[in-house]
Amino acid sequence: MSSRGSAARLTKSTDGVISRLINRRISTRITRVLAGLPRPPSPDAVTVVASALVAGGGLAFATGHPAAGGLLAQLGSIIDGVDGELARALGRQSRAGALLDTVLDRLADIALLFGMSLAAMAAGHRPLLAAAVALLAATGDLMVSYIHAVGEKLAQRHPVLVGRIPGVASRDVRLFIAFLAGLTGRPLEGLAAIALLGHGYTVAKTVELLGYIEEQESRQSKAH
């Protein structure tokens, strides 16, 4: 099988734009190396490493190293793709692994956003403003994950594949925003962008899902 074909088997149709354009180009190469080892690491171990990197990014932001924080967030984003790829490559996908990945992703994101809020305060922004924007960013982050989980359960289809709005607010995109915020030294602006993207996407995707579910229910009722 060609390398392009094997890489395609490791990716997902629901990948965000940053995953498709940047992250998967790197993560699939890492996965092929790990999968070829005599004793490959477990996907769960990779999940823990990815989450530790993102949370470490929050620590770097909080301690006055925003560029390092952004780099760690983006590195964690790339490694976050490796755990799923490795599970698919080794045939070791599990619901327990998916649960661990989801929980650790959310905890790592909260740590990162908290660190960015402390960096914003250190940059001279009012504490109340920084805290409010960080709260909006955190709730936006959580709402994207929530609408994807609940939407997929109710619509029987991943929300990214429903309607016209692509996965513009997926985790890879949000972490890339944190990466850019760290490199430019603008943590408050990064938090604001994550907040706006997360909540805006949640509202728009909810509208699309409602229309999709109502259409499916209408078809089913007509069929009966």
TrEMBL record:
Keywords: Transferase. It comes from the Archaea. Transmembrane segments: none annotated. InterPro entries: CDP-OH_P_trans (IPR000462), CDP-OH_PTrfase_TM_dom (IPR043130), CDP_ALCOHOL_P_TRANSF_CS (IPR048254). Belongs to the CDP-alcohol phosphatidyltransferase class-I family. This is CDP-alcohol phosphatidyltransferase family protein.
